[in-house]
Amino acid sequence: MRTFIRQQFVQAINTEFGRPDMIAGVATGGIAHGALVAHDMGLPFLYVRSDAKGHGLKNQVEGDLTVGRSVIVVEDLVSTGKSSLLAVQALREAGLEVKGMVSIFTYGFEEATKAFAKEKVTLHSLTNYSILLDQALRSDYITDKDVISLNEWRKDPAHWGVEV
Hints:
alpha/beta, Rossmann fold, 6 strands, about 45% helix
């Protein structure tokens, strides 16, 4: 599965964004996949912590920033987009041009879609919530009634099922 994900990321990057100067993985889930993609593409790799380190150089971005100017960000999961876009902000503050982001999965929350548009970041995900539901339905793991409920959850997960 790891090989398949790496290959799909490389293909998506080449097709959707063109070759960057480097690849960045978002801590923690994007680091391993990002490193594999960078290796496969023969590109330098760096990673972004959620916060600056509390000691030493206090870096939030780790890697050689002098080797390139454009970067593709690798994430495992995008839900609200908050942590992903904080990584984009850190890379931009480090002087890099973020060409876009790839992820394995996204829920497709409206909140995330708006946040990515506002920050002018293109997200390409290998799969998403709608595909997951479709596969679960086709394999009889869930029913049509479940799909309705699960789609209601996606509209407002923080308040779903809360009695008022």
